[in-house]
Amino acid sequence: MARVRIRPGDGKLVVNKKQLVEYFKTEQDRSAVLSPLQMAKAEKTLDVFVNVNGGGTTGQAGATVLGIARALKIYDPGLAQALRDGGFLTRDPRMVERKKPGQSGARRRFQFSKR
What we know:
This protein is 37% helix and 17% strand.
């Protein structure tokens, strides 16, 4: 889950009170987080503050992308269609499969004994 606040500024991007390069170590995650700002041509004009938790680093990067895109849509409604076309406003629908009753996990079954 990511909470994103944006305000006019000089392009500062803070994630969990750390700079972007300190928090997201891989270039893939950093470029994903910056992509909605680059599409809106706002990476140098807006300060972004993100609080994110849960999941792994790639999942947190995805949540941050969605949060930034939603914040940009509220900040400037004219960007909504461009953000939608870029796929930034679409939530990832994958969820953890539930554990089934009588079994040891979501897909794990007890060992089958033929005799």
